[in-house]
Specification:
Length: about 100
């Protein structure tokens, strides 16, 4: 049986990657946004920008640890974790008994 115009034997496309919608940000952009959030988090709002950098880095890595890791995504993930830990330590240090509240 031969396939003619409009009468294909294959009912589904060969790969899903060709048919995927490309409406979201790509991985390189998410990695760069994560790095910017991590660096800015060292100066202001580290408790918010640190986890945001971790999330952007994780999404830029493709939500997996194996395989090729883009450098901006890995930098965003590491700096975001350091930023979050420093913000938590700073908040714990200012909320101690010698903070002068009472």
């Amino acid at each position: 049986m031969m396939a003619g115009f409009g009468h294909t034997t294959r009912k589904h496309p060969r790969s899903r990657s060709r048919t995927r919608r490309r409406s979201g940000p790509d991985r390189a952009t998410l990695g760069i946004i994560g790095v910017i959030c991590a660096v800015a988090g060292f100066f202001v709002l580290g408790i918010i920008l640190g986890p945001l950098a971790i999330a952007c880095g994780w999404l830029a890595m493709g939500r997996r640890w194996n395989g090729a890791r883009p450098l901006p995504a890995l930098i965003a993930l590491v700096l975001g974790a350091i930023d979050t830990i420093l913000a938590i330590v700073w908040m714990a240090g200012t909320a101690g008994p010698s903070s002068g509240m009472f």
